[in-house]
Amino acid sequence: MSAICFDNVVKRFGNFTALDGVSFNVEQGDFFALLGPNGAGKTTLISILGGLTQSSAGAISVMGHDVAGDYRAARRAVGIVPQELVFDPFFTVRETLTFQSGYFGLKNNDAWIDEILENLGLTEKANTNMRALSGGMKRRVMVAQALVHRPPVIVLDEPTAGVDVELRQTLWAFIRRLNADGHTIVLTTHYLEEAEELCNRIAMLKQGKLIALEEKTALMNRGKARSLTLRLRPAELPDALRPLLVAECDGNFELKLAEPDALTDILVAIKSAGISVRDIEVAKPDLEDIFVDMMRNVPRGA
Ligand SMILES: Nc1ncnc2c1ncn2[C@@H]1O[C@H](COP(=O)(O)OP(=O)(O)O)[C@@H](O)[C@H]1O
Ligand SMILES: [Mg+2]
Q1: Is 168 inside any structural domain?
Q2: Ligand 1 atom with least separation from CA of 205
Q3: Which region among 7-11, 68-72, 90-94, 162-166 has the lowest average model confidence (pLDDT)?
Q4: Model confidence pLDDT, tens digit, residues 196-255
Q5: 36 CB under 6 A from ligand 1?
Q6: 230 & 215 share domain
Q7: Which of 159, 173, 174, 294 has the greatest number of beta carbons closer than 10 A?
Q8: pTM greater than the 0.85 cutoff
Q9: Distance from the CA of 113 to the center of ligand 2, in angstroms?
Q10: What is the CATH number of the domain that holds 75?
Q11: Which of 10, 11, 13 for mutating ligand 1's site (highest number of atoms within 8 Å of CB)?
Q12: From atom 2 of ligand 1, which residue's Cα is the shortest distance away?
């Protein structure tokens, strides 16, 4: 059983289509990144998953429970950290979490609440009113609130947008531990280096459509090939290497390096043409390069 199944999910707002037939599965134990530019439909997809919005067509299930037909069980299986901060300003942090436990019918949840508070650096704020917390602290409470009922699936919608480095690190250490303990994690983020560092699978949404879904390693290998920049003396590229030329600037030749092993052939061709290599640099694309490339190359309406 997959942790989450998105099956041909469509969402229309009037005659605007925010989600245009999105299908993919998140497997149990995944640390899954859902990427996409603003307006791609990430938050809408998560709202339907959490039962806050209804889809226009299609279905979503969490741990085998349909989010529409089996709402209570589906809701119990997932903890969602929303993109927007929503809280009651008159509750303390602990009251907020106790109240949330009650919503799920959990009594005597204090030991787990204490553990969450501790792991999110909130222990000292436990009795502070929500309205008196900084934005970063409120964000931590949103995370705590999503974890109160120990959901097997945890979804974080841009949890680190605008938060300080310390919170990011605290949060990731904790979320990594939860993932290692068997929780499935879904994350949307604008910080691609976070997805690159943390996640094992990556999906990309653009204009309401899924344009990529791959193992991170496969995605990264599939992106732009590595590039090789050579400074040559004399500044001449042997004819045999012309087909690989990407750019030429001030005697530097940038060549496409389809696979690392092609390097030997390139160097042999240069040496046998009597040319010497003065400098060499190999660059590997990161997720950001790949992302930008894909977002640019997918035609509108594809
Ligand atoms: N309640 C709504 N009414 C009308 N349009 C909406 C509503 N919610 C979202 N949208 C539109 O749907 C699209 C997807 O939004 P959203 O899911 O928030 O994207 P993301 O989270 O990827 O930035 C956007 O164009 C947004 O303006
Ligand atoms: Mg969003």
Answers
A1: yes
A2: 22
A3: 162-166
A4: 889 999 998 999 999 889 888 887 776 666 889 999 999 999 999 999 998 998 889 999
A5: yes
A6: no
A7: 159
A8: no
A9: 28
A10: 3.40.50.300
A11: 13
A12: 13
Q: Is 192 part of any domain?
A: yes
Phi, psi angle pair for 121, to nearest 5°: 65, 35
Distance 18 CA to ligand 1 centre (A): 6
Residues near ligand 2 ion, CB 5 Å cutoff? 42-43, 83
Contact yes or no for 25/4 (Cβ under 8 A): yes
Q: Look up the domain containing 258 and give its range.
A: 225-284
